[in-house]
Amino acid sequence: MKPGEAVPLYQVDGRANDHTDEIRVAYNNFKRGKNKPHIPCSNRQAIFYQLETPGRFESAHHDSQRIIPAVTKAIRETLRNVVFLDPRPALMRDYAYVKDDLIKEDGSNMSAVLYRISQEPEQKTRLLAFIKSLPEQDITDIEFIKTDRNDVMVRLVESFGQKSRTVDAPLLSDGTLRVLAVGATLLTAPEGALVVIEEIDNGVHPSRAETLVRQLRATAAEESC
Where does this protein have coiled-coil stretches (predicted)? Predict the structure, then answer.
């Protein structure tokens, strides 16, 4: 191996046959020569998950035992910090179990995530700051309907002149629900996470799109997303 030359840490060597899930994986023993040692792995799980234990490699291959598990663990941690959101408003209008408070990709448990955020006054203030300037309505507060079975549904408080009214999730517009889901995702994403949002301005009035982008940047900067 020449200095600076890129060499794979491992490589799948052939496919599993029809009678087993086992596949052969060649791993880098950091020694000269093209013939690399092989270990059995399962094709039912990502290979890098199966290489996090030093004991998977031959005892004499100390560099393999040290380097490969460290790199594969770093890959896993990086992927864990990627958050995908493809909000589906039709699925966000129902109750969500209060303990189901890690945002799902479709946003269906949004009410539970918002409930979790609202239990911390500072986070609730930031959530309101995120959503207040986006929809056409003047949103002054966020509340929840809670059942005896610990299911929750989000309810927004809107101001019209001197009067206020509450609007439950089933009556909220698609655009408002999407903005709520985006806010919930940004405020609960792990520090340093990469947040990927599908069609972020879908359902948002064009006049509000620029404001949405500004709010996203500001919130992401505060959260270090």
Answer: none
